[in-house]
Specification:
Rho-like_N; Rho_N_sf; DUF7218
């Protein structure tokens, strides 16, 4: 049984597995808190096909700092690496 990480982590088992894979606490928590994180499908739109405003909103949702000054390409890179 996974350790309880409190209300900030919704799926403790998934969080633990991601941490064991070497992900940062922030990234593991963000993934474990996504309602459909355990589902497969690959139906998300490519970042390149999204508008800068859509990328900005996604960056805001995941807590990327400095997003307001980023170009579209910088937002894409930040979303892929964060």
């Amino acid at each position: 049984m996974a350790k309880n990480h409190g209300p900030s982590v919704k799926n403790d088992d998934q969080y633990e597995a991601l941490r064991e894979e070497g992900m940062s606490k922030q990234k593991a928590a963000r993934i474990a808190n996504t309602p459909d994180a355990g589902k497969k499908g690959g139906k998300a739109e490519n970042y390149e096909d999204r508008t800068k405003d859509e990328l900005y909103e996604q960056a805001k949702k995941v807590g990327i700092e400095g997003r307001s000054k980023m170009s579209k390409q910088e937002l894409i890179e930040a979303l892929r690496t964060n």
